[in-house]
Amino acid sequence: MKKAKTRKPGVAGKPTRAKTQPQPQPQSARLEHFQSRQSLIVETIRQMVEMESPSDNKAAVDKLGRWLASKFEALGGHSKFHRTVDFGDHLQVDFSGRDRRRPVLLLGHIDTVYPLGTLASMPCRITDGRLWGPGALDMKAGIAFMLHALDALRDQDGTLPRAVTVLLVSDEEVGSDSSRRITEETAKRSDSVLVLEPSYGLEGALKTARKGVGEYQLKVIGVAAHSGLDFEKGHSAILELARQIERLSKFSDLKRGLTVNVGVIQGGTRVNVVPAQATATIDVRVAKMSDGAGIDRKLRSLKPINRKCRLQLSGSIDRPPLERSPNVVTLFGKASELAKQLGWKLTEAAVGGGSDGNLTAALGVPTLDGLGGVGEGAHAVHESILISECARRTALLASLIEA
After folding, report:
1. How far apart are CA 151 and CA 143, in angstroms?
2. Distance (Å, rounded) from C-alpha 112 to C-alpha 196?
3. I need a surface site. Which of 55, 133, 340, 397 has the fewest CB within 10 A?
4. How far apart are alpha carbons 91 and 83 in whole angstroms?
């Protein structure tokens, strides 16, 4: 009888790694893994929330960016910053994988809407099964899910099952002007895009459709005059603007998901002067890009009611809609099946707000949004996430990357 051969020990006495490809982890075991580490995920979120990062404070955003770069590099990623002057530097981290598939892009942002010092009146706290604080939901929870999912997917050599690119921009909350080109170019090199923006509602629905967003400014130029001595010689820009706003209100079509909202108006100089100037800032939301072109034409075709006044329009639809395309449906179907294996039914929603996922979906790259935290109060004093959802959301993300 031949004596059985023994395996030679590897590094630090561990068995050498088999040459065959590692098999995907059973979903039940994956979920148990993240449930055992849920407190660590929450701690990562807490640390980020306590590093305030308002869009308009470059130093604060850059501090968080450097901290995150070190965390991703500890997992084997190669980080680089896309430098900007007016905003924080955008962080990109590239991870190699065991196969030759194009990378999956994990997309998010590190800036928040809250001014520096908000923690004094809105401290980060853990109570009632939630973590509360500025930016917890939108979207520091999603970034924590990225970190812990990638950590769990590494094998003994620290390699991921596939290549992954992480892109965290610093200006999403203020329009993504400095990061848009970077996001679009990175998406074009990717197999698919997973957006770690918060989910929709306390049921944690993924966002398979988002409205496109446009901002316009309508300026009216009238004729000034003394309101007592020469009233009849004046032509009120405010009166003309009011009449135009009546027109604008009729452009909304709720059945089509098209809304036109005049959110800010300004005009006049003194109470005893017939105003020569007035402006309106207009928010436009469209569910389909074709409607974006249509409303743009309508706005540009506005004519003055008082021919003594002139109209000037500026602006555009600057963030295209994320439409529920076949690519999006396929990706959501895959996520739904994985969620079912993890023990829950995933739902989907169409929402009015935009994200950088709108930009990648418009390029035809399969995009799935809303994979981040589950909670409520984004941009509000009661912003919070449900701690109980952190483990399975991270498990779902890890499974999507692997699949």
Report:
1. 13
2. 14
3. 340
4. 9
Cα–Cα distance for residue pair 331/371, rounded to 1 Å = 12
Q: Are 345 and 309 in contact (CB under 8 A)?
A: no
Structure tokens at 161: 């099952």
C-alpha distances (whole Å) from 191 to each of 108, 272, 321 are 17, 63, 20
Enumerate the β-bridge partners of residue 169: 109
Does residue 72 contact residue 79 with C-beta atoms inside 8 Å? yes
User: Residues 200, 204, 210, CA angle at the centre, nearest 5°?
Assistant: 30
Helix/strand/coil for 29? helix
User: Count of alpha carbons within 13 Å of 180, Cβ hemisphere only?
Assistant: 15
Rounded distance between C-alpha atoms, residue 181 and residue 130, angstroms: 36
DSSP states along 32-69: HHHHHTHHHHHHHHHHHHTS--BTT-HHHHHHHHHHHH
**pTM higher than 0.90:** no
Helices vs. strands in the chain: H and E counts, helices first? 10, 18
Residue closest to 39 by CA, chosen among 403, 394, 399: 394
Question: Which pair of structure tokens corresponds to residue 335?
Answer: 């996520």
**Tokens 């809303």 belong to which residue?**
370
Output the six-digit token pair for 293. 């072109």
CA atoms within 13 Å, Cβ hemisphere of 209? 15
- Return the half-sphere exposure (C-beta side, CA atoms, 13 A cut-off) of residue 382: 5
H-helix or E-strand spanning residue 105: strand 104-109
Helices 38-49 and 141-153: crossing angle in degrees, nearest 10, is 140
Query: Would you state the structure tokens that stand for residue 394, as one six-digit string?
Result: 């991270």
**pLDDT for residue 15 is more than 50:** no
Residue-wise pLDDT for 87-139, tens only, equals 999 999 999 999 889 999 999 999 999 999 999 999 999 999 999 999 999 99
CA nearest 53: which of 172, 157, 160?
A: 172
Q: Which of 304, 306, 253, 313 is nearest to 282 (CA)?
A: 313
Residue type, 257: G
